[in-house]
Amino acid sequence: MNDEGGQDTGDGWGHDPEQELRDKADAAALRRHQLLRERVDDLDRAYNEMRIAHTDLASTVSERLAPELEALGESVTAELGQLRGTVAEVLAEQTKAENSPVDWARLSVEDATDQWPVLARWIGEVFVPVYGVTRGELPDCWPLHFTAVVELSWLRSAHVQSYLPGTHPNITADWHTRWRPMVLTRIAEIIAGAGVEERCEPGKHRGRPLPAGPAEEGQRGSTPRKMLALPQHWWTAYRFGFHDDLDRRARRQETSVADWTPEPLPQ
Length: 267
Known about the structure:
- 63% of the residues lie in helices and 1% in strands.
- The chain is rod-shaped and about 150 Å long.
- It has helices at residues 17-95, 109-131, 146-162, 169-192, 231-254, and strands at 204-205, 208-209.
- The chain folds into two domains: 20-96; 104-253, no CATH class.
- It has a two-stranded antiparallel ribbon with strand order 1-2.
- By secondary structure, it is an all-alpha fold.
- The model has no long low-confidence stretch (mean pLDDT 82).
- Helix 2 packs antiparallel against helix 5 (231-254) and helix 3 (146-162) packs antiparallel against helix 4.
């Protein structure tokens, strides 16, 4: 049908196609708006729930966890400080040379004068009386055998080291079960190397009697080899060994240093 202006206003059955399209578009837009609104409401509820949970968590942390974390942090800091101190002490102990072995080959006359009494005192006051070392194990003439002196010297250094504060018991055990018997065996081998005819035994050096030392005390009834190796038995040999060693060092110091560079090979 046409209106007065001649335009078509419907299909002749009362329907307006354009209006129906507009209605459908409006309905679809309204539905999308409703869905969007529902989504926004869901997000708003989720946000509020998260905000409440965050508030509760912050309150819990503030009231309970924060003090605990602070205390834990202080404890860890204190323990780290103690650990640093312990590590520093261990490193300092390792770098100290307060008990370094004696290098007898390089000692000057003055240094040897100091080291001989240190060794003799340890043997006389510790090694023999504490560990029951006999004259059979440590012959009277040990000071006259320079290699035996060197062996006993490092054994003394190891003994001192094994009883320093903080030393692990395994080091002490090694000294008792390993180093002490090994050095005594080494000394027996060194001194026995002279042969049967020049045997070193109680009161003799290389088969020759040693000059009498201080009077013997308190070991009656024992055979000489089973007697303790007390200073009275080796003191005379100690005097000779001490002065002989110092004389050799003095002569060496007076002698010019040898040139160990070999001459050229013949062409």
